Amino acid sequence: EKGGHDWFMRKEIFEQPKAVADTLLDRLTLDGALKLDEIRISPDELRRVDKIVIIACGTASYAGLVAKYAIEHWTRIPCEVELASEFRYRDPIVGPSTLVVAISQSGETADTLMAIRHAKEQRARVLAICNTNGSTIPRESDAVIYTHAGPEIGVASTKGFLTQVVACYLLGLYLAQVHQTKFGDEIAAVLAELEALPEKIQHVLDGQQQALDLAQELVDRPSVLFLGRHVGYPIALEGALKLKELAYIHAEGFAAGELKHGPIALIEDGLPVFVVVPPQGRDMLHDKVVSNIQEVRARGARTIVLAEADDPEVEPFADVLIKLPKVSTLLQPMLAIVPLQLFACELATLKGHDVDQPRNLAKSVTVE
Ligand code: F6R
Predict the structure, then answer these.
(1) Catalytic residues (predicted)?
(2) H/E segment holding residue 242
(3) Taking Cα atoms as reference points, which of 237, 216, 230, 238 lies closest to residue 348?
């Protein structure tokens, strides 16, 4: 049942190319437009949306954080991301023109469920992004986009996360289509890139040995840091969460730009620091992250750098370089997270932990 893998989690990591492809299936039309009739909120109503609030917990909230960058960029509609457990205790400003997007793999997370009930009381429209047919959160929502990842059994979310990002991107592109904030050909270009993604994820999986070797090397380290900027920042958070929950070691993700505001004090000789480097491009993003790598390396960090293949600027500063296929900035998270998942899974295996059932955790958290 684990398809030859030692853990469900590893099996699910390897299912990601298919999970992403299945989530795209039947939602793209031949003429490059997006078909999301299943949303059941009319285009007229969607045109009235002037604010998006994403609510979720844990890994799903990091998928939401990635999506915020893309949704705001494509739609120019303000998009907030909030932890479900915080949302309803702070008198949030939502109303009939707010689209609340609840992301939940299980569809049963109590915090998220309570948050959408609160949003509905404020007359917001609620759309669920969910992997479990007929579960409570989609049932109580006005609309739903299902991720078609298939059952996720490992407690740590992997294919759930990737497909949540994909579903949020489809929503963002659909809103851009409805609000006409992007031209059809721009939307088509992103959709084509999404369609090409499963093959690129497979390519990253084929290079798994590097992540496994790294786990061997770092198995006795008490602490690991992760840095990223822009969409790489939530990937740093997610990479750290995977390591905490599976390997039970201290791991933290930071926005690379925040280093000098405090976290750089943590850097000491030999501390492993993973850095997600955005693709090379016209903006300053890439160069800023390269100088962050230099800053931590100069203070003794062992740098493990995830960057696009053929990035000559990072090579001199990477103690270990994990090469990612070429892809645009907004799609890079779906590649960069994969080696971090493999690394956490392997490290936990080497430590003798139960990867599928980490201590103290449950697959769906049905109490607040
Ligand atoms: C971490 C993890 C959790 C869940 C969170 C939300 O690997 O799996 O952080 O992401 O409990 O669960 P769902 O998506 O089912 O609402």
Answers:
(1) 363 (for fru-6p isomerization activity)
(2) helix 232-247
(3) 216
Q: What is the pLDDT of residue 31?
A: 77
pLDDT of the residue at 38: 82
Rounded (5°) CA angle 100-136-68 = 25
For the CA of 61, the nearest atom of ligand 1: 10
What is the rounded CA–CA span in Å between residue 299 and residue 259?
Answer: 12
Tell me, in angstroms, the distance from the centre of ligand 1 to residue 134's CA.
Answer: 18
Ligand 1 site, residue 153, Cβ cutoff 6 A:
no
ipTM: 0.98
Helix, strand or coil for residue 53? strand
363 is catalytic: yes
Protein residue closest via CA to atom 7 of ligand 1 = 156
- Contacts of residue 11, defined as CB under 8 A and 6 or more positions apart, other chains included, come to 2, 3, 5, 154
pLDDT at 131 over 90: yes
With contact defined as beta carbons under 8 Å apart, do 228 and 234 qualify? yes
Does residue 364 have its Cβ closer than 6 Å to ligand 1?
Answer: yes
Q: How confident is the model at residue 206 (pLDDT cuts 50, 70, 90)?
A: very high
Tell me the per-residue pLDDT of 183-196, one tens digit each, with 9 for 90 and over.
788 899 999 999 99
From the CB of residue 2, how many other CB atoms can be counted at a distance below 10 Å?
A: 14
Q: Across-strand partners of 128?
A: 102, 144
Q: Quote the pLDDT of residue 358.
A: 87
Q: pTM value?
A: 0.97
The tokens of 177 are what? 């289509």
Instruction: Tell me the residue type at 344.
Output: A
Beta bridge partners of 55: 82, 102
In terms of C-beta density within 10 A (0-12 exposed, 13-18 middle, 19 or more buried), how is residue 72 classed?
middle
The reply to whether ligand 1 has any atom less than 6 angstroms from the CB of 57 is yes
Ligand 1 atom nearest the C-alpha of 109 is 16
